[in-house]
Amino acid sequence: MAKPIQNSKVVAGDLIGELKKVTWPSRENTIRLTIIVIAISLIIGFYIGIIDSLLAIGLEYLTNIK
């Protein structure tokens, strides 16, 4: 059985080796994609808000029918 400290050093070395292979996105690309994600989230939130309001109005209408 390997010692925990030696095992940790191997794992850390492998992790650093893998991180050196990663192609990191440029700053401009990261900013552009972040803006796209925020915009899509706002659009979906607005859409869900409208649907929720319409369903609440419909439910209130149905519960007030006598």
TrEMBL record:
Q: Which domain of life is it from?
A: Bacteria
Q: Which InterPro entries does the record cross-reference, listed alphabetically?
A: SecE_bac, SecE_sf, Translocase_SecE/Sec61-g
Does Protein transport appear among the keywords? Answer: yes
Please name the Pfam families in this protein's record. SecE (PF00584)
Q: Which residues cross the membrane?
A: 33-59
| A GO cellular component entry from the record | plasma membrane
Q: How does it sit in the membrane?
A: Single-pass membrane protein
Alphabetically sorted, this entry's keywords are: Cell membrane, Membrane, Protein transport, Translocation, Transmembrane, Transmembrane helix, Transport
- Keyword check for Acetylation: no
Q: Which GO terms describe its molecular function?
A: protein transmembrane transporter activity
Q: Where mainly found?
A: membrane
Biological process terms from the Gene Ontology for this record are: intracellular protein transmembrane transport; protein secretion; protein targeting; protein transport by the Sec complex
Indicate where this protein resides in the cell.
Cell membrane; Membrane
Q: How does it assemble?
A: Component of the Sec protein translocase complex. Heterotrimer consisting of SecY, SecE and SecG subunits. The heterotrimers can form oligomers, although 1 heterotrimer is thought to be able to translocate proteins. Interacts with the ribosome. Interacts with SecDF, and other proteins may be involved. Interacts with SecA.
Q: Give the protein's function.
A: Essential subunit of the Sec protein translocation channel SecYEG. Clamps together the 2 halves of SecY. May contact the channel plug during translocation.
- Note the NCBIfam families from the entry: secE_bact
Similarity comment: family membership:
Belongs to the SecE/SEC61-gamma family.
Q: What is this protein called?
A: Protein translocase subunit SecE
Q: Which organism is it from?
A: Candidatus Roizmanbacteria bacterium RIFCSPLOWO2_01_FULL_38_12
Q: Which gene encodes it?
A: secE
